[in-house]
Automatic annotation (TrEMBL):
The species this protein was found in: Araneus ventricosus
GO molecular function: nucleic acid binding; RNA-DNA hybrid ribonuclease activity
Pfam families found in the cross-reference section: RNase_H
RNase H type-1 domain boundaries: 63-110
UniProt-listed InterPro entries: RNaseH-like_sf, RNaseH_domain, RNaseH_sf
Protein's name in the database: RNase H type-1 domain-containing protein
Domain of life where this protein originates: Eukaryota
Amino acid sequence: MLRCLHKPSGYWNRVPLLCKVEPQYLLRGFVGFGSPGKTEGIGSICAERVKVWSDSESSLHSIASIDIKNPIAQQAQEILLKSTNIKLGWIRAHVGYSGNEAADVLAKKATLEGSPTYIEPYQESASKRVHAIIRWQGEWDNREAGRSVYNVLSKVKTTQNPLKRPEIIFVTPHGPFPTYLKLFKIRNSDSCGCGNPGNPLHYATSYPFITSYHLTKPSADLEPLWWKIVMNNNYSRAKIRKLIHFIAQTKHSFLQKMVTTTRHRLN
């Protein structure tokens, strides 16, 4: 804590300068950071009387020591010898001295109450984000793979889509469908038991053994629109989820029924 005493009008007027002086900065406070020969430290604050209170006993001992090799401490000693108006004193820390503990109080207050921080958006970053989304959209429009998903999600976006797992299986199209199993050589044919391609659209609209899960079959030219309408309709999505759950629970008998039907047609 720094206290400056001066006598402008015939009596002592006490002007306290409340500040926290950390131990590692106490010596530098006397010396300042100017060129040699200039008084820019604490000694230049007041030309009359200066009293510096510090809770750093080690720093005070360093300044008072005769055998000291620290150049900053040596320079502080020279200032004290030339400036007899500067006095040093020691006080205990954390015992209620407002000036010495003002910084600690303010730091605690900031920690408990916080301070609102607003960061201006970086325009260049926002511009890069827009260009990245435009490039991403162009790549998604021109890709050959994933066209079944494109029928449902034609616009790219950075937010998560609310589709559930059975609906994703139906749209991708992954799962226990002959077209998917044939792709990984799990089945020899991608045909359904009735001879048609065993894709999700066929099972959701035409497969004869699960008519209770059927949706209205679209014409070939309206098929892309059908996907978009169905996946945006809660009732249709509920039927699709039930269809996928049924196939998953009865996969063995479901596939066996397809094999039996195929053999019967061949015979």
